[in-house]
Automatic annotation (TrEMBL):
PANTHER family: MEIOSIS EXPRESSED GENE 1 PROTEIN HOMOLOG, MEIOSIS-EXPRESSED GENE 1 PROTEIN
Family: Belongs to the MEIG1 family.
Described purpose of this protein according to its UniProt entry: Essential for spermiogenesis.
Protein name per UniProt: Meiosis/spermiogenesis associated 1
One cellular component (GO) term of this entry: nucleus
Top-level division of the source organism's lineage: Eukaryota
InterPro entries in the cross-refs: Meiosis-expressed_gene_1
Amino acid sequence: MSCAVFLDNNAKPKSMSRAKQWTGQIEDLYRFQQAGYRDELEYRQIKQVEIDRWPDTGFVKKLQRRDNTFYYYNRKRECEDREVHKVKVYAY
């Protein structure tokens, strides 16, 4: 993603593909999508808050869902191999 995308608060994805293998980025996308968001960009547009991350792994620690309840995540990997193909990767 380019920096220009973060400056445009109304950025819409141009295409979508599915994840093929696990990476740190896929882990974060999995966590955002579990909480009901496309990705970090959509979360920041809607909630306008800083994202809590684990200091050692950098993974998302806590997300607020649209109904204002919270999801708390472990510092270790949560997206199992059998779940990877369900993660949507958006291109802007």
